[in-house]
Write a structure and sequence with these properties.
This protein is α+β, with helices and mostly antiparallel strands and 82 residues long. It has a single domain, classed as Mth169, Chain: A. It is 34% helix and 28% strand. The chain has 2 helices and 3 strands, in the order E-H-E-H-E. It starts with a strand and ends with a strand.
């Protein structure tokens, strides 16, 4: 199974990369872009077969290493094999 971890800045935290992306897109003629937020996605391949246990372990990984919980939010998506 896989876990996808989506990490982004919390509301109110300055995002200079996102602001630069939005401004650059506007400069390239994409005037419909009002704002952009830059984040990251981490894909983990897990050996676990228990979805609930896997999600709990990935949450612990986020809290300890993957996300800076002072300024970042994260969302976990568990993807089981089809």
């Amino acid at each position: 199974m896989k876990a996808l971890v989506y990490i982004g800045l919390k509301p109110g935290v300055l995002d200079p990369q996102g602001r630069t992306i939005a401004r650059s897109l506007n400069d390239l003629g994409f005037d419909e872009v009002e704002n952009a937020f830059q984040g990251k996605i981490i894909e983990l391949t897990l050996s676990s077969t228990d979805t609930e246990a896997a999600e709990a372990r990935v949450k612990a990984m986020c809290e300890k290493l993957l996300a800076n919980t002072v300024i970042e939010n994260y969302r976990i998506e568990i993807v089981t094999a089809e």
